[in-house]
Structure formats: C-alpha cells, structure tokens
Design goal:
The complex is a heterodimer of chains A (361) and B (323). Chain A has 361 residues and is α/β, with parallel strands linked by helices. Helices cover 48% and strands 9% of the residues of chain A. Chain A is built from 14 helices and 7 strands. Chain A has a 5-stranded parallel sheet with strand order 1-2-3-7-6, sandwiched between helices. A two-stranded antiparallel sheet of chain A has the order 4-5. In chain A, helix 3 runs parallel beside helix 10. The longest helix of chain A has 26 residues. Chain A is globular, with a radius of gyration of 22 Å. Chain B is an alpha/beta fold and 323 residues long. Chain B folds into 2 domains: 182 residues, Rossmann fold (3-Layer(aba) Sandwich); 124 residues, Rossmann fold. Chain B has 12 helices and 14 strands. In chain B, helix 10 links the parallel strand 13 and strand 14. The radius of gyration of chain B is 19 Å and the shape is globular. The chains are: A alpha/beta (361), B alpha/beta (323). Chains A and B meet through helix 5 and helix 14 of A and helix 12 of B. The structure holds thiamine diphosphate (TPP) and magnesium ion (MG). The site of magnesium ion (MG) has 6 residues of chain A, from strand 4. Thiamine diphosphate sits at the interface of chains A and B.
Amino acid sequence: MVDALLGSAVQLLTPEGERVEHPDFDITLTDAELRSLYRDMVLVRRLDAEATALQRQGEIGLWASSLGQEAAQVGSAHSLRSSDYAFPTYRDHGVSWCRGVQPMEILAMFRGITNGGWDPIARRCSLYTIVIGNQVLHAAGYAMGVQLDGADEAVIVYFGDGATDEGDVNEAFVLGADYQLPLVYFCENNQWAISSPRDRFNRAPLYQRAAGFGFPGVRVDGNDILAVMAVTRMALDRARSGGGPTLVEAFTYRMGAHTTSDDPTRYRHAEDLEIWRLRDPIERLKVYLARNGMADRSYFDQVDHEAADLAVLVRDGVRAMAAPAPETMFDHVYVDPTAELVAQRAGLIAYEESFAEGLTA
Amino acid sequence: MTELTIAKALNAGLRRAMEHDSRVVLMGEDIGRLGGVFRITDGLQKDFGEHRVIDSPLAESAIVGAAVGLAMRGYRPVVEIQFDGFVYPAFDQIVSQVAKTLRRSEGAVRMPVVIRIPYGGGIGAVEHHSESPEAYFVHTAGLRVLTPSDPGAAYRTIQQAIACDDPVVYLEPKRRYWDKGEVDLAADVRSGDPWCSRLLREGTDVTVACYGPMVRTCLEAASAADVSVEVIDLQSLSPLDLDPVAASVERTGHLVVVHEASKTGGLGAEVAARITERCFYSLEAPVLRVTGYDVPYPASRLEEHFLPDLDRVLDAVDRSLAW
Ligand SMILES: Cc1ncc(C[n+]2csc(CCOP(=O)(O)OP(=O)(O)O)c2C)c(N)n1
Ligand SMILES: [Mg+2]
C-alpha cells in the first residue's frame, strides 16, 4: 500500500538499506557526513522520547512528537548552509536541532515558561509557529528580502500536509511563483492532520499542486535521509541561483499521537504503524552504514552513550527550568512600554507583594 | 433533571437541535470520528452521518465562508473553530460577510450561522489556545455573542443560538467544560430567550457582573466574601442585557466587572460606561474592572497571575466598598 502511494517518490536507500540509483537525483557524502546524519537522528529521537516522558510526568505541558520524521527533518536541515534561513513548525525538532537550537531552548515553550525559546535571528531559525500555515507567508516575505538584497542565501519553510488546506500556504505559493523567490517549500506529509487522513482531502498527490502554481514539485521518500538530502540540496541550489521555488513533499508518517493531548486509537489502526515501523528512517541508515563498513559497533555504542547523556541533560535541565517572575509578562509587549503597561505592571507587583506581607504578618 | 458536564450538555443540545431540524449541519476540524478535540460532537457523526457532521479541511476561512453559502441555501450551519486562537483566519468572513449579509441584502438573506469557539485560559495550554476574543465580535454589528457558564445554560443556549435567525458567535468556556450541573433534558427550550443576564446569587453590598469562565470564580468569591455579594452572569454579550445589573447597582451602589480578556476596550469598559450613564447617582464608587492585563496571553506557567481569580475579585470588592 505504502509503495503504491509513494509512487514516483525519489528514493536512494531502500527500507532494507540498499543503495539504489535515481535518474535525476544523486548524492555523494563522506563516511563522516553519513555518520553525523545518523547521530543527529538518534539524538533527536532521544530528545523526543525524553520530552514525551517528561510530559507524562507533568514536567512539560504538551509535546508534539517528531517520531518517525527524523530523516525528513534532519536530512533537509543538514542541506542548509549556515547563512540560509529555516521556518519550522511545532513538530520540527530535528530542524531546530540542526540549526543549533539548544535542547532547553526547544523545551522552554513546551514547559510553559515562554512563547519563544531562542533568538530566531541568531539561530537563523524562526520560532515554532503554532497557527497552521502562518509561517509559510513569513518565509515568502523573508525570501523577498533575500532577493532584494541580492544575497546568496536560500530559505526553507516547513509545514504539514494538513497545512496545505489553509489559504496562507496557497497564498505563499502564489508569492513564490510570482516573484521566483529563493524558497523551498518543504511539506512533511505525515499522512495525518490530527484525525484527518491526508487522502481524504487530496484527490491528487500534494507535490503535483506545484505545477498549477508554476514551479516544480518533487515527492521524496521522507524516511530516506539520502534522498531527502539530494532533493533538498538541489532545490536549495536552484533557489540560490535564481531558479525560483520548489515544493518538496516528504512522504513520511507520524508514528506518535498528534500531541500528548491526542488519543489516536480513536481514529487509526495500530496495524498501520507496523507497515511504517519497517520503514524506520534510522534503522535504514544504520543498516547501510554497518553493511558498508562506514560505521562499526563501537561507533553505534558511542552514539547510544551520547543519547543517554542527552537524556540526562534534558531531564535535569527541564526540571531546573523555573517559571520567570510574573511581571515579565509585561516585557516586550512594545519596544518601549506604554504608561498604561507600566502602571499595570506596578499594580501586579504590589498586588503579589500584598500576599507576601500577609504571610509574614 | 440529569447531571451533566458542560461538554456533555452541549453535545446533548446539538443532538436535540439536529433531531429537531434536518437543516442543521455541523462542520469543523476533527469533529467527526474524533468528536472534536474536546469531544463536544462525540457520536454525532455516527448517528447523523457524514453529510450532516462534516469533517472540514484544515481551513477556518473555508469553514466560515462555506457556512455563509450553506445559510444562503437554507441550511443552519453550526461550525466549530478548534480553539479561540484559530478563529482569526476566518475573521474576514465573519466580519465582512457573516455579520453584514442581512443588512446588505436588505433583509432578503438571513445568516442563521452558529460559530462555536472554545475560549479562555486556565488549562495550561501552549500559545493561541487560551484567548478571549469576545470584544472583537461584540464590537461587530450584526453578530450576536453568547457564552454559557453552566451545563443547564449550555444545553439551553446552544439550541436557542441554533434556532436564532441571526448569526451567533457562541463562546464555550473551555476550562469549565468538565464542570457538572443539573440539566433538564426533557424541557423544550428552543423558543426560550437567551439574550438576557442571569441573577445567580443575591447580595446587598456589591454587584459583580461576569460571564463565561469567570462566573464560577465570582460565585466562589461571593461565597468566600465577608460582605454580601450579588453575582450576575451576563451570558449574552451582544446584545447586552444590563437591566438586571442596573437594578442591582441601584440597590448596592457598587459594581465590579470581571473578565479574563484584556482590560483595554474589553466588555468591562462597555458595561462600566452604560452603568455609569444609567446609575450615576446610585453609584458610590467607580465601576471597577478585574481583567486580564493588556499583554499577549502569557506562557502557561504565568497564566495564574494573568487570570482573575477569587482573590483578585475579593480585592476589587474590598476596594469598591472602601472607596
Ligand atoms: C489555524 C489553525 N487551525 C487549527 C489548528 C489546530 N491544529 C494544530 S495541529 C493541526 C493539524 C496539523 O496537521 P499538519 O499540517 O498535517 O501537521 P502535523 O501536525 O501532522 O505535523 C491542527 C488542526 C492550528 N494550530 N492552527
Ligand atoms: Mg500531518
């Protein structure tokens, strides 16, 4: 079933870890590069697993799991230059990770102590956008700026299959086509938008939509990190060289619940997961590395140790992450606070202090 | 009488409305098989079919825009917006079309559309899941705005909203979804009038006007107060029914208005202005507001400091009496 759906998807590594040729796409990576892709995927998966566990323990309020989508995220983000700019969704922990966003910066929002978490300018990675589709227009505008500057940079924007229903996303396609923007639209088709199966709303494969807007669309096996990199690199090169935008549809699967608040047993069968478990992106690369002598047992052990260390760092770090003082909610509402806000802030502080006095009195 | 949660009462009210009128259709994201993220439409697709409980695409402007067309065609669409913070993609359709079509068509085209929105904070959610957008809708002529505060009111007013030939923005206090109360499921409530305030607790010293999620907070404050507090649930935010509030203020001389939404340009300002106009000589203190601050809804670990609670209500009651 999955193979039929994958259809024309670009694949360079089969689910069994066999390297295969594709007429249009290829990639040559050093052994060290391949190992680092593997390492990043393993670490991101561990981060994800720890975050899910921390949510169950009440340490974070919510978590949107990236489980199963590591190749799509890590592969595409690895294709970026540091000068490029990425606009992730709330699920793209593999993207933010590769942009150098620190684990605690990723987790701060889910812990409920900030609505941001990192400096999007310094990291060249925007904050997670929760309102579906909004960031795709921002990416178009950012790409307009890159174009106006004549800079040798590309922009990549991530969104889900469900997001392609929204006006914002389609309007962003119009912008990209009209102005031939240096932009890669990276759609992670994980087959589900909460409880809505993607095939319900799409009579035609998503990547084919690009043709109607006037730019190329490519479907890639989103669990094949080599194919993801080959396709994304080409799209980014095209963008940087004035060739205009590309839609990349990474065909993958949401292995977990939509978020920790969701109960997927209400709308999907556990058997579907089995099919996709056999297509696991990490196992696939691991088999390839091992079989071709690009990494040995001690390397895999070393990565596992790193993952265990990361888990400790995440657990301890999250537990130590305290809520800021209440009055910080008045910070950065405007560049310079208004008189009314200054007064409200003082009111809050005085009010809270009146309790402290009450307690000591 | 049956004991139900607000969530179950809404479900029962929707079911009743659908049984009564085959032109009532539901539409929204994940409302079918999943029953909505809050399960308000649980079981309705199974019982009424996919053609009447429609799983929509992930597109709010599409949901509300299509509701306009369905209404033009004689249907009574009841659409669900998944969370308050996701209504804004549909804001254009609501303000420019839903609200104005009756006027523009000189009365020829009615818009019996209900837009259900879970709203308000207090559930520890991430950004855009805790907003109180009522003032935008109240400010828009042509829209009616309702918000129930208990299961009985939810059961009645959802049916009355659906029966109404004007568009209704129906704001559901999400943190109270699981509050329980008595519901009279046997009563035929469709023809009742939801456009009124409700006197929920009598008192003689201070009047507290509130609505939606703050009603429970204010009732608890009234119970805890060492003075006598009268609590009025506004329920209908547009049109506002301030007769009971004015009558109360004429007796107490003190009014506190409470809402989660930010202060500036909020409902509290409207209530204060109207009551000041009507009851100027009865007031012994200015109308005080207890509201969220004028900041974006904060991250969840700070929300308890943003949201009015029992103590902030009592503080305002004391300040009013000490004026
Ligand atoms: C404008 C808007 N409407 C509704 C939601 C609620 N919501 C959050 S995620 C989601 C599904 C998104 O599906 P998809 O785009 O496929 O991304 P995925 O979650 O699968 O990564 C919905 C409906 C939202 N966040 N924003
Ligand atoms: Mg999806």
